[in-house]
Amino acid sequence: MRIAVIGCGGIGGVVAGILGSQESDVLCVDINKDTVKRINDRGIRLYGKKGNINTSVRAVSSIGDEEGEFDVIVITVKSMVLRDVFELNKDHLSNDGLILTLQNGIEILDIVKDFPDVKTVAGAVGYNSQIDEKGEYIVTAQGGITIGNLTTGSDEDLLRLKNIFDPGILIDINRNITGVLWSKLLIVCGVTGLGGCSGLRLGELLGHREARQLFYRVVTEGASVSKKLGIQLEKFGRAINPEKFGDHKGGYPIFARYLLLKLIGITRQNIKAGIILDIERGNRTEVDFINGAVVKAGMALGIDTTVNREIVRVVKEIEQGNRRMTKGNLLEIMELNKR
């Protein structure tokens, strides 16, 4: 079985490293020539919550550089380029091949509408990983991947993926993958969106009362949108259904929400939000595809998404160099939300 992993950032690098260590035939594809050279020269090294792994895999800049077809193509690129990458790589699938997408957003739900005949499985990643200064991958939070079919795939296809990934990465199968993707989106909206505004690592972020209150509003807005769309949010992996953090019927009491967020902050205190890392590296962030996705859907449905909208505005101003990442941004958003 031939597997191509497109995008070797924090998520893709770990996938490629673990699959390679389990003797799968893995090809890494990344447009960054330095990343390609590093992988070809010394393989993939990862450490942390999934143990220490050092495996040799090949890397190229384009899947077109390789002959033949692939049984599985795993796409882990940023949401803003997902459509282009999907279209470019789908023609390299074998007759019974499938694409597995692993992103923070829900962009894939629109993409598959245009390609209903391409076997597409979506996944929500439960672990957290980043690339250190040596180009090695550190897994800072344990977890597996929850997957489900979006198009013409079968239960057998999902079991095939499960057998490929286990035991290195635990796979859960969920028939309501749309609900899973929306749940992951709302968690990321709160953690990554607010982290990007403030520049705070997760532990410090969730230690602030204002950040916790804004987190409740972020997921309340998102849950209202998903409910209007007829989407049932799903608990996945070891995560809590984000709907439980909302200011609505069915949400946990405030003291329970407080304790849970504090616990998450303690256990994952040093994690940096992806938006922070992008800003520090001078890259475009995914905010339009994270908080912006909630805002876009809310506007179409006539649902207020003030906090998510303000997070998008603040992050874009930071991207453009017109604002600094500081916890004072959280206070500003709080004040605007009160008006």
TrEMBL record:
A Pfam family found in this protein is ApbA_C
Is Disulfide bond among the key words of this record? no
A GO molecular function assigned to this protein is: 2-dehydropantoate 2-reductase activity
A GO biological process of this protein is: pantothenate biosynthetic process
Where does the record place the Ketopantoate reductase N-terminal domain? 3-150
Q: One GO CC term of this entry?
A: cytoplasm
What residues does the Ketopantoate reductase C-terminal domain cover?
A: 176-319
Q: Which UniProt keywords apply?
A: NADP, Oxidoreductase
EC number(s) reported in the record: 1.1.1.169
Which NCBIfam families does the protein's record reference? apbA_panE (TIGR00745)
The family annotation for this protein states: Belongs to the ketopantoate reductase family.
The name this protein carries in UniProt is 2-dehydropantoate 2-reductase
Q: Which organism is it from?
A: marine sediment metagenome
